TrEMBL record:
Keyword annotations from UniProtKB, A to Z: Cell outer membrane, Membrane, Transport
Species in which this protein is naturally found: Nitrincola tibetensis
GO cellular component, one term: outer membrane
Cited Pfam families: Plug (PF07715), STN (PF07660)
Source species, domain of life: Bacteria
Protein's name in the database: Secretin/TonB short N-terminal domain-containing protein
Keyword check for Secreted: no
InterPro entries: Plug_dom, Plug_dom_sf, Secretin/TonB_short_N
Keyword Lipid biosynthesis: no
Every Secretin/TonB short N-terminal domain range: 71-122
Length: 912
């Protein structure tokens, strides 16, 4: 019996290698490490990764798999002769990839004891060890394009363990500055993040094939004006990244099968059973006493007081006293033919805050601060998340299901508002089922999912009284906003077919349906009463400077936000078709996506085109380019703002004896037809192996059009949405990821990236509403850089840090007892935009550019297994900002906001 052993060793072409070296400027110090590749074949076999293998003859498909994985495959040539494969596209281990390629062929794979796999007829037992096969590592030519993928061990998780921190190593990702603010270290809500400069809510978030976007009011934050809205978040589920096997980010050249975004697509997959039982439990914590705070000198006193020196607002701006804890438990096992993984996580935070602030001149004489905080309160916040995943094992089809949930609950109040205590909640639940099978030469992938998410707030009081001629220190605002709930229910299915049309040509096609039901529910009437003095009569005596007693004022206005429900449903649909080919030196993909936005009533056509050439015969170095259009999302707020008017009744009068008269609200919000926002993308990139790793350079331009903005006519008390917004983003990304290697008796891995970004937009994505609810007119003239320009031509002030550099160095001992991670993040000194108010000469809003310093943060994580056995307790210590750098992350109102100083985290656990 004759066997074929796939053990191909490619020699690097000097010309292409030098071309890529010169283009990438690989002067990175990490690239100079004297690595020698020593990763084992079986370790590669157990690692999940992305595959893209074209349909065609089975022998060719197996050869491609061997080249891309570096795993030994041996088989009789007689077995594969005349057999074909439908190809492979997706994230799998080598074993899973083999099972898919061999399905419907009558063949199966079996591991060889010394490494690799033996291909044999289905039903044959044992591995033919009498055949001596030379075990050689394959150096393959697989090159990724259009996405980045992080395995569980590569994700950053020193501080928050959320998606933003996990993805911060990627060059296309920018994380909100405030997530690392030294002032708010008690916060445990996941940070928002941007991809390619787009708003955070314009990313598409997916978990196990299901979209987990929040399509209600994802950009809303809690505030004093939220009478009819509830704080939201772009993520409907707050998942613990420690439960994820890998996360894939598509940020350029997205396939026609992807839609509903203008930023990027994040595909997260939960862990599953990996061939052996496992279990772990851990307790993780940090304290304010383990943290160094960097605070602007003008804020030192107020930070120590734990209360903003403002008379009203939400607590939490200053958090000098906090404790955060996290408990996590997870495990995997096998029950018959079903693999099971389950995880449960709880994070808690306790912050001590001041609820009331008084004017105290004695305090001012002593401290220089006129406001004296008092009445300290304890605010508790908790966040729970969990996942249960089931996988069918050893079948000729793929079938898995996962159930994920999260709930976030936070105590709060309004500063100086008596009786304003309230509770805010964010909850999510999602069930996702995936099925894939080969039918002859065609592969079918099906996902069905259902989800529910809600944003809720519950005030203790349902009446708010405002005394306009009384300061907040004398009871000027009393009460709360009542109980209000937003709920989103989704039912979604996607279906994709992949068929070979020729040896090097494949056809993908399919569709998507997404039904969404929105509900806003006010559980009881909320009444807003406004009082003022009767200025037609002699004024009563003041009880304070510029303050009169509430009993001396009369009610002049009342607004009743009536209890009731506002409901509406929406059906979005999409169909796509795509051709892709990889032959000789040329590869290309062209597709078309047709999307129906039922919410806005739009049908949109999104063309996708990408391709390139291989620079060497072994197809390891590639030059690629693409031109694509991506349509974004629409939100409940676009129509809800108008619909909720039906539940509002407003009356007013001008004197204590006058009759209350109704106020016409019919035009307060005026809905008009909207178009779906979109981004046009062009890109150029080069990639290939460099210095025992994979490197690439990508240049991307995004033009955002028809972005939704809020317009306002204050004279007519009128607001409406339109598509006047636009943006333009340029970005250059450079990355290098090493192959696992041995050096100085330890194993090393390096993940490095550098990115430059420039963005122009008519709005700033750093404000409370991230653009779509802010009153901004892009055609408004402003004064900037000594001349009049349109507001839309101003540079962006957030999510556009010009140069960002990330470097992660992961070191582990040969027996895996010790793992050390050093993570470096750098941004260069750059200019930022500041609003200076009105220009006295022209009366226009005046903007200017100020210099902001560079930042450098070094985080270190040490994980130590205490016993030789794999079943052992462990200790983990994380040190954030090891060098305690004073990093300026932003500046607002002439006050610098610094990142957190040195902070310690301690984790104790047991792994079985």
């Amino acid at each position: 019996m004759s066997y074929t052993v796939i053990a191909v060793s490619f020699k690097r072409k000097p010309l292409s290698h030098l071309l890529l070296l010169g283009t990438l400027c690989v002067g990175m110090t990490a690239g100079m490490l004297p690595f020698s590749v020593m990763a084992s074949s079986m370790q590669e076999a157990s690692t999940s990764r992305h595959w893209n293998i074209s349909a065609g003859p089975l022998g060719q498909a197996l050869n491609t798999l061997g080249q891309q994985s570096g795993i030994l495959l041996s088989y009789s040539t007689d077995l594969v002769e005349g057999k074909s494969s439908t190809g492979l596209s997706g994230h799998y281990t080598v074993q899973e990839a083999l099972d898919i390629l061999l399905s419907s062929t009558g063949l199966q794979s079996a591991p060889i004891v010394s490494g690799g796999f033996l291909i044999r007829a289905r039903g044959q037992t044992g591995t033919d060890q009498t055949v001596l096969l030379p075990l050689m590592r394959v150096e393959g030519g697989y090159a990724r394009s259009g996405f980045s993928s992080l395995e569980s061990g590569e994700m950053r998780n020193a501080m928050r363990g959320d998606l933003a921190e996990s993805l911060s190593i990627l060059p296309s990702v920018r994380v909100a500055d405030r997530s690392s603010s030294s002032l708010q270290q008690g916060d445990i809500k996941p940070a928002e993040f941007s991809i390619r400069g787009a708003a955070p809510y314009q990313n598409k978030l997916m978990l196990d094939g299901a979209a987990i976007d929040n399509l209600m009011d994802p950009a809303q934050r809690e505030g004093l004006g939220n009478y009819t809205s509830v704080a939201g978040h772009s993520q409907s589920i707050f998942i613990n990244s420690d439960f994820l096997k890998h996360v894939e980010v598509i940020d350029v050249n997205a396939s026609a099968s992807e839609g509903g975004f203008t930023g990027g697509v994040i595909k997260a997959e939960t862990k599953g059973y990996q061939g052996e039982d496992s279990f772990s439990i851990s307790r993780r914590m940090t304290r304010d006493s383990w943290t160094t705070f960097h605070v602007d000198p003008v804020q030192q006193g107020t930070f120590g007081d734990a209360a903003a020196q403002l008379p009203v607002g939400l607590p939490g701006e200053f958090q000098p006293n906090f404790r955060k804890d996290q408990t996590s438990i997870q495990g995997a096992t096998r029950l018959g033919d079903i693999g099971v993984f389950a995880g449960l996580d709880e994070k808690t935070s306790r912050i001590r805050q001041k609820q009331h602030v008084s004017v105290d001149f004695a305090h001012f004489a002593e401290t220089g601060r006129i406001f004296r905080p008092s009445e300290e309160r304890t605010l508790d916040t908790y966040s729970r998340s969990g996942v249960l995943r089931l996988d069918m094992l050893e079948q000729d089809y793929l079938l898995n299901a996962s159930l994920a949930f999260s709930e976030y609950d936070q105590d709060s109040f309004f500063i100086n508002f008596p009786d304003s205590d309230f509770d805010s909640r964010h909850q999510g639940l999602n069930l996702s089922v995936n099925f894939a099978k080969n039918f002859g030469d065609t592969r079918m992938d099906l996902n069905v999912n259902a989800g529910r998410s809600s944003d809720e707030r519950y005030f203790e009081k349902n009446i708010m009284d405002q005394y306009k001629n009384t300061t907040v220190y004398d009871g000027g605002m009393i009460g709360g906003y009542g109980e209000l709930e937003n709920e989103q229910q989704t039912l979604n299915t996607t279906l994709k077919f992949s068929s070979p049309l020729a040896d090097t040509l494949s056809f993908d096609y399919g569709g998507e349906l997404r039904w969404i039901h929105f509900r806003q529910n006010r559980l009881n009437d909320f009444i807003f009463n406004e009082y003022k003095l009767d200025f037609t009569q002699p004024l009563p005596p003041q009880i304070g400077l510029g303050s009169w007693s509430p009993v001396d004022q009369f009610k002049d206005r009342q607004v009743i936000y009536q209890a009731g429900k506002t409901r509406f449903s929406n059906l979005n649909s999409a169909a796509f078709a795509e051709l892709h080919s990889d032959q000789q030196r040329i590869f290309w993909r062209t597709g078309l996506r047709l999307e129906r936005d039922g919410w806005l009533g739009n049908t949109n056509v999104a063309p996708r085109l990408s391709g390139g050439i291989y620079l060497d015969d072994e197809k390891r170095y590639r030059l690629s380019a693409g031109a694509n259009r991506y349509y974004g999302k629409s939100f409940l707020a676009y129509r809800l703002r108008e619909k909720e008017r039906d539940l509002i009744v407003e009356t007013s009068r001008t004197s204590p004896t006058g009759e209350f008269m109704p106020v016409d609200l019919s035009r307060r919000w005026l809905y008009q037809d909207l178009d779906t926002p979109y981004d046009d993308e062009i890109n150029l990139g080069i990639s290939g192996p460099v210095l025992s790793g994979e490197a690439g350079l990508v240049m991307v331009e995004r033009r955002g059009e028809r972005q939704v903005r809020t317009q306002q006519d204050t004279a007519k008390d009128l607001k409406w949405f339109d598509n006047s917004g636009s943006s333009r983003t340029h970005q250059i990304d450079l990355y290098w990821r090493s192959t696992p290697a041995e050096w100085l008796g330890a194993y090393w891995a390096v993940n490095a990236s550098a990115s430059w970004m420039d963005k122009q937009t008519d709005t700033t994505y750093g404000n409370d509403s991230s653009g779509y609810l802010s009153s901004i007119n892009g055609d408004e003239e402003v004064w900037f850089d000594g001349k009049r320009i349109l507001k839309r031509d101003l540079p962006a002030s957030n999510f556009a840090t010009p140069v960002s550099v990330n470097l992660d160095l992961i070191t582990r001992s040969p027996n895996d007892r010790i793992q050390l991670r050093n993570a470096f993040a750098f941004t260069n000194g750059y200019r930022y935009l500041r609003n200076l108010g009105r220009d006295t000469a022209t009366g226009l809003s005046q903007y200017d550019v100020y210099k902001q310093g560079s930042t450098l943060r070094w985080d270190m994580s040490l994980d130590l297994r205490l016993l030789e056995s794999k079943n052992s307790p462990y200790l983990r210590v994380d040190v954030v900002n090891v060098t305690d750098n004073q990093n300026v992350v932003s500046a607002e109102s002439n006050v610098q906001l610094f990142g957190v100083g040195r902070q310690y985290w301690l984790e104790l656990g047991y792994r079985f």
